[in-house]
Amino acid sequence: MYLVYADEQGNVYDHSELYGLARSGDMIVEMLEEELIPLPEGATLVGLPNTRAVGMNPKTGEMLPLPEGSQAVGALLPQGFTRLCLPGYVKTDKSYKLPLFGYSAVVWKDGGFYVAADLTDDPEQWNPLNCDREDVEAGVGSLTAKYPENRLYGHLSNCALGYECLTSSNTFLGRWEGAVPVSYSCNAGCFGCISEQPDDSGFVSPQTRMNFRPTVNEISEVMLEHLKTPQSIISFGQGCEGEPSTQAKLIIEAIREVRSITDMGYININTNAGLSDHIRGIVDAGLDLMRVSTISALDDHYNAYYKPRGYTLANVEKSLKYAASRGVYTSINYLIFPGVTDREEEIEAMVEFVRRTDLKLIQMRNLNIDPESYLELIPPAQGEILGMKTMLEIFREELPDVVIGSYTHVPPADLARAKQRRVKI
Prior knowledge:
Distance between the termini: 59 Å
Domain Radical SAM core: 172-401
Organism: Paenibacillus riograndensis
Radius of gyration: 22 Å
Pfam families: Radical_SAM
Largest sheet: 14 strands, antiparallel
Protein name: Radical SAM protein
CATH architecture of the largest domain: Alpha-Beta Barrel
Cofactor: [4Fe-4S] cluster
């Protein structure tokens, strides 16, 4: 398991002597054979600026940072893979904040790259290699010509072509889960938000947030264009917008209009679910799927990261319980981080939260953040750090009826039939 590192020009090398190390939280740790898998198709290797890779002398066990002029390397994993460790590194400039990506530990082994990761979902749909850019360009041209006055298609075309966002690309390809952003405002101040940052945050937002309020007609056009197959999903709540439920009136009217025309496919919302009354109205209008973003089931950790405005974690739980009681297929977008999510107290709290809310699916999502900044923000560990692989095993054992995955799914057949009955009523 040899150390992987890069030079200042970005050329990647494997070390001839030192073994690769990893990080769990702020601790440098040895990598375990059972945690390694071959570098997945669609993954990307990136250098970590202003860092030095740390390796281990296998004969003495001594941990050694490489000389200046080199940098640590991490892997960015496609959806479907949950990282188990961070890359092993030390910063050369402690004030520097790494770009907002989910870096995973990578080593050279048996003539190839390996990463510390676990396969938690089928990666096929979200493999970037399965999104043909020429097809996306053709789809953008077709739909923007068909709906020249629809500002949402204009906005999404930049997301698909400029950012190569897979969800917005699906909107133009007419497949799987497609995007329909609706909100420029938010009721949370998430640390490391990917679409809006205060000037003094030190982070650079990788996306630009939408800056207009769409009409019900614009929203309905996008929804009806996409909801043409039984397996199609259209989703409110994208990385290029704020909290969609702040525009509940628009969403409710659009859902009602679309469902008066077709019962095809599934309507999903990606939300923080803090506005319980707004969520109730959206659910009652005919919502099928709801994915709630969370980083913890502990109030102090949740509040430190999300900085909620006018709501609490109790409101989030209330929204999930109501949606589940109305037959909505509920899941959480669980932002995970090695050395934090696998803390004993975090695991215990999350297991109980899932049980109380009758969740159907936990979507494991690698948190895109600068590790040092995040660890300084949140409360310190209270119990033992069990390891990410152990955490996944506990979830599977303690929550046998809950799906462990990585992205939004069409519900199982029995729940899908229930959905069809609910729409007809």
